[in-house]
Amino acid sequence: MKIIPAAQGIFYPETKELLLSSLNQYKAEICNRETNLIIVPHAGLEYSGQLAFQAYNLIEKDTKDFVIIAPAIYSRIYGCVTCNEEAFETPLGDIKIKPAELEINNSIFECESSLTVQLPIIKYIFPEAAVTPVIYGCEDYKNIAKIIQKYIKHSAVVIATNLSRFVPEREAVKLDGQTARMIERKQTQDFDNELADGAAGICAAIEYAKENNMDFIQIGLTNSSKINEDTSSVVGYGAWALI
Fold it and tell me: Which of 56, 75, 103, 105 is the most exposed place for a label (fewest CB within 10 A)?
């Protein structure tokens, strides 16, 4: 069976023509660096798609396997779960699913847009790629780091997270700047869900970076007010690449 994400028509257009029209507008700077781990937002494409697009374009173009690690936003779960259905449906075509060696919870992947909003960009840039989906709830970040360690040699790893949430823009800019410094300095102490809803995923990536003597480069920071002009309550977005 296929999973039809609830994000279609909400977080990104549900028709091929409209989705292509959106994705075709995105541009990525030419960069000689390549990475196999990125941290990207999980908002609607109109809000953070350009930033995510830039991050995905740093991944080697013949990559055939992705592991997406995303937080459960709408569901209360413990630990990490995966999916063993045949494929995810997207307006650009199906994406084959390769389950991780984790507990199976297929239904959660229909509603959790934190993961499925990544699929259209992956299908657009890497049309032949398959996805290993991982959603986590209450989980020790060191356990997520073990998942990264297991798959990163053969797959590109995507850590999905938004940053500050529903605060005035001035506060969001301050918080997101703090978050950026912690990521780039590879600090996990006091890194919590107040800074990012995917805090455990970010800390897992930092743990992997420290263990392998690698660093993060910032691709960009933005927030929802840049699109909807509402500065009273914004969501922050950031993207980084591991090098």
Answer: 103
